[in-house]
Amino acid sequence: MSSFGWMIVLVLLLTLLGSGALLFITLKYYWGDRGKPLPDREIRRQKREEELRMREKQIEYAKNHPHTPRPESFWDNTKK
């Protein structure tokens, strides 16, 4: 077989290998360990409430610890 024929065979083999790897990763991602069914209504409600509590804590922390910007001077690198 000529060198051109070997290049075509090599390209086809690499294409098949890449497609197989992409297919494997896709199947593993969507139907593997992460492929759990959707949570039911009660679990979603609990997660939502937990997220809202965390946001309340973040807002309270931000109110109690306000942001202190740096001074306008480029050479002064201290917070006040």
Provide an overview of this structure:
The chain is mainly α and 80 residues long. It has helices at residues 3-31, 41-64. The protein folds into two domains: 1-34; 39-65. The chain starts with a helix and ends in a 16-residue tail after the last helix.
Total helices: the number is 2
Q: Spell the H/E element sequence.
A: HH
Distance linking N and C termini: 76 Å
> Uncertain runs with pLDDT below 50, 5 residues or more?
none
Number of beta strands: 0
Q: What is the SS-derived class?
A: mainly alpha
Number of domains: 2
Strand proportion, as a percent range, falls in: under 5%
Principal-axes shape call? flat
Cα-based radius of gyration, to the nearest Å? 28 Å
Mean pLDDT: 86
Please outline the major beta sheet. none
Proportion in helices: 55-70%
Topology, pairings included?
Elements (H helix, E strand, L loop, with lengths): L2 H29 L9 H24 L16
